[in-house]
Amino acid sequence: xxxxxxxxxxxxxxxxxxxxxxxxxxxxxxxxxxxxxxxxxxxxxxxxxxxxxxxxxxxxxxxxxxxxxxxxxxxxxxxxxxxxxxxxxxxxxxxxxxxxxxxxxxxxxxxxxxxxxxxxxxxxxxxxxxxxxxxxxxxxxxxxxxxxxxxxxxxxxxxxxxxxxxxxxxxxxxxxxxxxxxxxxxxxxxxxxxxxxxxxxxxxxxxxxxxxxxxxxxxxxxxxxxxxxxxxxxxxxxxxxxxxxxxxxxxxxxxxxxxxxxxxxxx
Length: 267
Known about the structure:
It catalyses: 2'-deoxyribonucleotide-(2'-deoxyribose 5'-phosphate)-2'-deoxyribonucleotide-DNA = a 3'-end 2'-deoxyribonucleotide-(2,3-dehydro-2,3-deoxyribose 5'-phosphate)-DNA + a 5'-end 5'-phospho-2'-deoxyribonucleoside-DNA + H(+). The protein has 267 residues and is an alpha+beta fold. The chain has 2 domains: 4-121, Alpha-Beta Barrel (N-terminal domain of MutM-like DNA repair proteins); 135-256, Helicase, Ruva Protein, domain 3, CATH 1.10.8.50. It is 22% helix and 18% strand. It has 6 helices and 10 strands. The protein has helices spanning 4-18, 118-121, 135-142, 150-155, 165-174, 190-205; strands at 25-28, 43-49, 52-57, 61-66, 72-76, 90-95, 100-104, 108-113, 241-242, 255-256. A 4-stranded antiparallel sheet has the order 1-6-7-5, with helices on one face. A 4-stranded antiparallel sheet has the order 2-3-4-8. A hairpin with a 2-residue loop joins strand 2 (43-49) and strand 3. Helix 3 packs across helix 6. The longest helix is centred in the last third of the chain and has 16 residues, at 190-205. The radius of gyration is 20 Å and the shape is elongated.
């Protein structure tokens, strides 16, 4: 699932490939944009904002996309086979003489004036990887609803932008509380350390495709709890638990260690 570090890397790869070059192909395959043609315009920048991608083109226009759960942008050289999925999953094609960017399974794709970008990203809190990062403001927003469970508060992009389900679970583990622990009951020093840790982890992972929160570089130890249902905790050996029904966890469930993390948990 794309999170802030994944979007940052995607934006920088797209920027390197497209920025400063004229579009020789433009194909936006959603009904409301079916007649839009950006051919002949230069891409001026591709900018990440939280989990949003803003592709700016000449003429004061921005193509706004959001990957949600399984969307993706892929880059291809001329003549290279497209391997991101079947053709019916393609939602956008932006091509230059050197590279072609193909957007697959994009649940959000819209064209707006660049001046109107705040209408789609203005609600976001401080961006963990953005130039507007403000740790104090992020802490203030995180604690604005003291009764709210930590996991919900971390996922709320209005508090701080860029955290998804993976980092939610990992940050709760590092804070030694469950994702259902009320943020207002956290020890006084924890929110500030939690926000600083979130920033550090996204910074460390933004340049690589394989996300890691466990230090040491071991190939068999990348994440503390996420995706590790039933496996032993690296700290105490207890089996990692997850919430949700069924025998197998899904992408949106929470993972936690019942020994290392204190606080409420589902029955």
